[in-house]
Fold:
Amino acid sequence: MDFSFSDEQNQLRRTVREFAAGEIAPHVMEWDEAAHFPAELVPKMGELGLLGVIFPESYGGAGLGYVEYVIVIEELAAVDASIALSVAAHNSLCSNHIYKFGTEAQRQKYLPRLTSGKMLGAWSLTEPGAGSDAGGTRTVAERRNGAWVLNGSKTFTTNGHSAGVCVAMAVTERDKGSHGISAFLVEHGTKGFRSGKKENKLGMRASETSEVLFSDCVVPAENLLGKEGEGFVNSLQILDGGRISIAALGVGIAQGALSAATKYSRERRQFGKTISEFQGIQFKLADMATQVEAARTLTYRAAWLADRGDARHTKESAMAKLFAGEVAVRVSSEAVQVFGGYGFIKDYPAEKYYRDSKLCTIGEGTSEIQKLVIARQLLGIR
Amino acid sequence: MNIVVCVKQVPAKDAPLAIPEGAAWIRETDIGFELNEPDGYALEEALRLKEKHGGEVVAVSMGPERSKQAIKEALAKGAERGVHISDDKFYELDPLGSARCLAAAIKREKFDLVLTGLQSDDHGFGQTGVLLAELLGLPHATIIMQIDAADGRLKLKRELEAGWFQWVELPLPAVLSIQSGINKPRYATLKGIMAAKKKEIATLTRAELGVTVSPTQRIERIYVPKKTKKTEILTGTAKEAAAKLVEKLKHEARVL
Structure:
């Protein structure tokens, strides 16, 4: 058993940290206030290799694994969770769906552009009436003249406005239930495809979340992604990896909040000493740090399992996502408490971690759904 | 153009520094280390010159095993190879000692140019580059803000005080100390980090270099400056007190 990171992994962490400090940190509040997604970061992150961490070099990726991917998401999230979320949706949802289930031609067509940051990716599963319940999916795709015609709408699509390509799930055979849903590649600019309302959110405000709408949207037959009818089943596998990235997002937010609180506790003076000298604050920080470390360990173990390839990691990914998501909320809430009144105002970093953290218990499956997933694995329920 | 760039590993900027009582150096256990920031600018300048004129960049560092990490960072950013002068007691060296070791290692290289940062973020002597040039018997210029290389000569912009600059010319080979801020250092890419794994780092010891040095200066003690506060009540009429205050602001605080 070896818990240490390699020299390369440590170097990667330093690189992402430097990048986040230099290119992201100075703008965090500005982007958050304006709910502005900084599209100019996309090619820069592509150049660094952050947009293709887990894909082979033949597709322009870095050829690394989930452990490295978690390092990237964690370090970005510690500075700005919105950016980390957009990178996560791009990598482990959109690009990974194409990589895992696409044909060689589809991979060649999209992955080099996605990994280099020439194109941003989105992934659309959720609908107004269907989230965790796939049966509620209303978006349909019908065969017509050798092509597919999509109709319907999707909600809560990360990168929904800026993405060059969107992987969208649509019903192709209603009576087959979850085996009647297929995945499609829809490019920005396709007639009948447009992004709708951009949501005004509590947190993660610099990350775009929007509707995507299909109205007699015709895509060629070759844009069917994966086997017909297997889109939803494939999505569940994609989410196994996606959950690890949301866990990493939670760890990053929690670490960012903890670091900010620790620093502040050494500066803020009350009753003639820094508040870090009070046991009440020390106990808080100790609890926070312990929770962060536990969440981190679960997350990296899930990533390690994913990298081994042979091991199923559904349960461990769900556990990491559940725990790290909840830890992000608890630790960032405690960070606000350490900051006191200054934790409540936007001149200090604590409130943003707190707002951003809540997404981690909701996105890519709520905490409750994670518990269902874990229980099913425990009890062998299919 | 073959360029040697000297890189040092120093305690990380956010490292909590503990000083054992009466010690001459900080406690190094449990703190992180990073590439000395001024050396990062020298490295970037070396990489840009190589990209423009061809040749190779060799990163040289001295220190214990951990200092190899500074070399690896240089390799990840694009240096071709590294030379590590392995020395667990390098902290006992003064700048002259450091420069002697570096000079001995650099003499083994075929180079046109040696770049160093202006100073290190830990000791901050700012002398190693200058001494290195003297020991190598090469022309040297400091606080470099721009390098134009052509026909075996360098045209250099130096930063002087109060917003003044100076242009100087030097023949190659030469040694330059680079001013921080001359460029925007690149980030190591993921591909660069992985490629660095396959690049060579040669290890040399002080004994192998045949350098024996006895320090010409010694640090007695390091300490955090004590904060002091002195309150003085100015007496007299308002006019007299104001006049005294102006005097003090002019001659003691020197803010007027």
Notes: The mean pLDDT of chain A is 95. Chain A is about 50% helix and 15% strand.
